[in-house]
């Protein structure tokens, strides 16, 4: 390789590595705020601030959803299925994918009694898609399909 | 043919123009056929998702668009390096002509993602790791487009765009791994190289067809734009002028509108008064 071309290659590589390092440092510094939500164990152990607008996420605990008969108010528990869970209160229309066992994101504030007062509820789905007929099969022989939520 | 000779020929616009003629129609017909099959298959015949119902079908547009958006940028970054270090003419043309296509793919990915997000997540837009990084990708395409027009000297503009393209490549792994590095709303990758997709073949097969079709469309677009750009850039060179002069006689004398060039058929003659 001619020295001129080698110098240009080195310059390009230097620019790329330098920019990558800069971006990496930026991301490292902003790491916590780049996370979209607090998982349940961070809400429970106090990492999530109280009285500040945050997002939190978890799975809707089966049997925890309680709807008010006259209003849109709903209360449910979000869990990580590893012992950490917290209660959420919400007044509004839930997304179509909201159901027990489903991953859910809530935006709002933790109040003093560590109950999450949600202003917005978002449903998180994963990259596992399957036709409804497969849902009725008892097991799929470990084909890698996600454990399905219970439709109701 | 050894690699070095092949490499030098690939860098020659004249050689590329000579060989690429049939590629354009080949890729275009492949793309149209695959996209038609994949889209009809995916929208009409693939089963609905057990949770999302029919709204999951937007995957057949969203995933190919998002893959193109990132692949095109990666291609621009590679072309930028080839231009800056090896001064490859053809790479400069790639850098110049592929930006609108990538911009369109990125816009389509964001747009289809918003349409998908509303019924499934419950929001048109969330400043999530992956969606934000894809928005940055769109701005990088805007930047490449604007930078070229901001610098009057074409060679200087190409070098500046090459540098921006190379630096912007850092965004691609951020888009790719954002769903693993941070807690995000966006789901993980649909296609992975190492594991089978987590859905039955009836769902992923049409998607694969559409993805292949999208890449064929990219190839057809690239070849067509490159051939145009080569002719424009080399218009004063001898081989282009020879090509233009040489193609003149083959067209033949222009037929006048009131006299058909082909011999009139029997029926036409009998119909004439």
Keyword list:
heterodimer, A: 152 residues, alpha+beta, OB fold (Dihydrolipoamide Acetyltransferase, E2P), 2 domains, elongated, disordered C terminus, B: 273 residues, mainly alpha
CATH third-tier fold name of the largest domain in chain A: OB fold (Dihydrolipoamide Acetyltransferase, E2P)
- Strands of the widest sheet of chain A, in order across it, are 1-3-4-6-5
Helix content of chain B: over 70%
Task: Report the end-to-end length of chain B measured between terminal Cα atoms.
Answer: 65 Å
Determine Rg of chain B (CA atoms, Å). Answer: 24 Å
Major sheet characteristics of chain B: none
Low-pLDDT segments of chain B: 249-257, 259-273
Choose one word for the global shape of chain A.
Answer: elongated
Question: Could you name the CATH class of the largest domain in chain A?
Answer: Mainly Beta
**Which class do the helix and strand fractions of chain A yield?**
alpha+beta
In short:
The complex is a heterodimer of chains A (152) and B (273). By secondary structure, chain A is of the alpha+beta class. Chain A is 26% helix and 26% strand.
Can you describe this structure?
The complex is a heterodimer of chains A (152) and B (273). Chain A is an alpha+beta fold. In chain A, 26% of the residues lie in helices and 26% in strands. In chain A, strands 1-3-4-6-5 form a 5-stranded mixed barrel. Chain A is elongated and about 80 Å long. Chain B starts with a helix and ends with a helix. The model of chain B is unreliable at 249-257 and 259-273 (pLDDT under 50). Chain B has one domain. In chain B, helix 2 (13-45) packs antiparallel against helix 9 (201-233). The interface between A and B is large, with 46 and 44 residues.
Describe how the helices and strands are arranged.
The complex is a heterodimer of chains A (152) and B (273).
Chain A: H1 3-29, H2 31-34, H3 40-44, E1 54-60, E2 66-67, E3 73-79, E4 85-91, E5 103-110, E6 116-124, H4 132-135
Parallel strand pairs in A: 4-6
Antiparallel strand pairs in A: 1-3, 1-5, 2-3, 3-4, 5-6
Chain B: H1 3-10, H2 13-45, H3 59-86, H4 89-97, H5 99-120, H6 129-150, H7 154-168, H8 171-181, H9 201-233, H10 238-251, H11 266-271
